[in-house]
Amino acid sequence: MKKMFLALLCAIPTMVCYGQIVEKKIDSSKGKVIELNTVMVTGKASTDPVLSKVKTDLVKKVVQPKNVADLFSNINAFTLIKRGNYAIDPSFRASQYEQLNIQFDGGTKAMHACPNRMDPITTHVVPEDIEKIEIIKGPYTMRYGSTFAGIVNLVTQTPQSMQMGLHGSVSSGYESNGGASVSSIKLQQVTDAYDITANAGYRDFGNYKDGAGTVIPSSFRSLDYGLKVGYNISDTQRVQAHWRQSYGRDVLHAGLPMDTEEDNSSILSLDYKINGLKGLIKEVNAKAYYSYVDHIMSNNNRPSFAMTEALSTIDATTAGGKVEFKLKPAEEWTVYSGLDALLVARDGGRSRLVKRNMMGEELAEPLYFQDKVWQDSYINDFGIFTEHKYKFSNRTLLTAGVRLDLVTSDIRDPEEDFRELYPDLKNRTESNFSGTVSVKQKLSEVHTLEVAFGRGTRSANMIERYINHFQVGQDPFEYVGNPYLDAEVNNQFEIGLSGKKSFTRGVDALQYNVSGYYSIYENYIVPVVDPMLDRKFNPTAQPQEVKRFINVDKAFKTGVEADVSIDFMEYYNFYTALAYVYTRNEDLDESLPLTPPLTTRFGVRYERGKLWSSLDYNLTSQQEEISTSFREQETEGYQTLDFKIGVEPITNVHIGLAVLNLFDETYNNHLNFSFVNQEGFDRVPINDPGRNFSVFAKYLF
Question: Which pTM was predicted?
Answer without folding.
Answer: 0.92
